[in-house]
Design goal:
Elements (H helix, E strand, L loop, with lengths): L1 H14 L3 H10 L4 H10 L3 H10 L4 H6 L3
Helix pairs in contact: 1-2, 1-3, 2-3, 3-4
Length: about 70
């Protein structure tokens, strides 16, 4: 579907990962681009990515730059 394809493109461009990894990560992240990007960039699971995003007030850049 168009929205899933757009989400895959966003994650691919934001993380420089192959399409297969972007699509797989998005599936785990329930098609949340923000969660998928944080999962890839911080090499963490979905729950950890969601927690980091909450602490970062929903800002991906802030979440990625946060050291834990």
């Amino acid at each position: 579907d168009k929205l899933q394809e757009r989400a895959i493109q966003i994650v691919m461009k934001s993380t420089n990962v192959p399409r297969t990894l972007a699509a797989e990560t998005l599936e785990y992240a329930e098609y949340s681009c923000k969660t998928a990007i944080v999962m890839i960039r911080k090499d963490c699971d979905c729950e950890e990515a969601k927690a980091v995003l909450v602490k970062a007030d929903g800002f991906v850049r802030k979440a990625i730059e946060t050291e834990e």
